[in-house]
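Hello,

I think I submitted the TLP job twice by accident. Can you confirm which output corresponds to this input? Input:
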Amino acid sequence: MIDLRSDTVTKPTESMRKAAYVAEVGDDVYGEDPTVNRLEEKAAELLGKEKALFVTSGTQGNQIAALTHCRPGDEVILEASSHIYMYEVGGFSALANVQTRTVQGVRGAMDPVEVKNTIRTENIHYPTTSLICMENTHNLAGGAILPLSNMQTIYQVAKDNNLQVHLDGARLFNASVGSGIPLEEYAKNADSVQFCLSKGLGAPVGSIIAGTEDFINRARKWRKMLGGGLRQVGIIAAPGLVALEENIDRLAEDHLHAKVLADGLANMSGITVENKVETNIIIVNVKETGLTPETFVEALKSKGVLAGVFGLETVRFVTHYDVSREEIEKTLVAVQAII
Ligand code: TLP
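Support: Only one job matched these inputs. Its output is below.
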């Protein structure tokens, strides 16, 4: 099977498996796992933040950020098709007890003026706006890279209004490799950053959240409350370290594969590529093929290719290191065959 459903499906590389085998471990709830500590230090350094925390998943990282930044009853401003709003099971309301307020973005980017106008003024009836969330790259916008200037302006709006900013950077490394802008430059425009080790970077498990020392100390307690204190967790942090040491620059290859796939798909009758492919995600509208996304994906599966249903008319393909250039070509042949 050529699995293009997501970059979450990558299997750990040989060096990751070896690193897990030899990892030095200790009880991370006591702060005594040397491998986790090394991973957290390295992640904080890459992002230019004081401290970082290893968490089980991107979802857990985002939820911990809301729990740490907000108080129950607060309002959070976020983009209308953001992962936090669409795909985290309503966790912001269920766990952090915050109310979400959405701003419709263009290719994932919210208009800073609209964000500013959405912040609550002082009024006895209103909730308190305490947090703004951004997502880079933006998943539902097809892996779109948020312009740095957009992030800078929104961050300034937040600071002018005494608000915190959280960046869902599940694929921030794709943004950085795709744009050539250092991670640190993006991370400067957020008080907390979450990124996933288990997507394009290829680690089997885990995400990082980073911020000030005070933020991370408080976040650590929320992680414990959520059951995320994981003891001898160096065994899964070790592949994460390998991911940061070996797998960043090669994301460019996934982006190239995505372009090749998108160009090939765009030439097929009945298929429209909906996004400007900047990183590793391609969203295609299949309506004109006469197939529903479900039947399209089913038919493709019978040809040995997995893609994901992504909307009422759309299918998503995501490139990653377990898919070679040759497999991209095979995918194009398979799509042509089912059409
Ligand atoms: N995205 C997954 C699915 O949940 C849709 C995928 O296959 O793309 N933020 C963003 C922007 C994400 O894309 C994801 C996962 C997460 C957070 C959550 O990460 P995990 O899956 O580790 O909880």
